[in-house]
């Protein structure tokens, strides 16, 4: 096995150094830092090139005093009792169940598609059993469900696919759903009941005082040092460390030696808007999706998520784009194949561990990243592991 030091010459680790250098202070890096410091007594340096911890989940009060998510709306949901119990050590929660309406044919309709969506779209009064038959009549036979188009047309047919999925997906990814893995649109289920929640996970809640406060507590251990506004490449050769946890894009770590891995980006347009007297919100629910109109995909009004009372309201428009911060891995076979080449390189490095959404090129939600970090921590604790 190779070591990072063989690839890049480093000064020897000295007494004043750190046991762990963690690149990235998002959920992956911060959970790992907390575990290593509090459970294994390790001295940890966390480095992030941004001016704050929290990664893409970071939130703050904007100039108008409204709590917003600068990198897009982040709603916490999980089926993992372990992840929820773990995070509950660092935050109290505000129960919150996310709701989304999609603007289709001049109406705002429940998304995921459910019984109400169909009845309102077509002016019907179907029951749950009848809507299942409705979907089955329209479903197209697909020999093997491989793509994001296959998933939807094989379940509900092409007309609903065209109204709710095709345009949104083309905007979001600049790819046709037929060019994306099934896993992408499979994130959004289809329901025959009237459940209008976006998620059905057992635990659904927002950190009571926001994500930034959660991260402050995660990183508060005296064994953890946090260095912000710093690219790890600027310090990796001068700060002694024993093992690195890397949570940035994996292709960048290897100087894109096999070529750039595609990541999809977004431009966020934030606005503070006045409210009519007596109103707390402008939108009927947190998020409105626009599958077929406009250059943006969705608009989210933060007060639904945060429960904040304020005379004004804050919204964010999401405009997908190719350039910019890497936000989404792009799940499709050729990208997975390219990732596998980087993964094989990464496996050679015995003193670097790769975790998180960017470093493992996985379309992970926050809870999945926390679960991955907790499990990786346990692996690092095994005897014989560096
Ligand atoms: P990140 O949060 O990306 O953190 C990586 C960190 O590494 C960053 O802070 C970056 O600055 C730092 N870094 C990278 N390179 C370097 C370097 N060279 N030197 C120093 N630092 C570096 N998940 C949900 O569960 N619910 C949601 O509602 C939800 N909504 C989302 C909405 C959007 C628009 C996006 C993009 C994602 C959403 N997610 C959501 C997913 C969620 O953001 C991720 O699962 C989670 O934040 C990933 O954590 P991470 O630590 O792996 O990565
Ligand atoms: N999607 C869609 N129409 C919608 C909502 C989602 O076509 O109204 C598709 C789209 O391809 C999107 C994917 O389903 O990228 C996953 O949606 P999700 O809401 O989980 O996306 P995220 O919150 O991760 O951006």
Automatic annotation (TrEMBL):
Any one GO MF annotation of this record: UDP-galactopyranose mutase activity
Needed co-factor(s): FAD
Domain of life from the UniProt record: Bacteria
EC main group: isomerase
Matching Gene3D superfamilies: NAD(P)-binding Rossmann-like Domain (3.40.50.720)
Xref: InterPro entries: UDP-GALP_mutase, UDP-GalPyranose_mutase_C
UDP-galactopyranose mutase C-terminal domain residues: 163-363
Pfam family, one: NAD_binding_8
Its EC number(s): 5.4.99.9
Keywords associated with the record: FAD, Flavoprotein, Isomerase
The UniProt record lists the keyword Ligase: no
Family affiliation: Belongs to the UDP-galactopyranose/dTDP-fucopyranose mutase family.
Descriptive protein name: UDP-galactopyranose mutase
Species name: Roseateles flavus
Gene name as annotated: glf
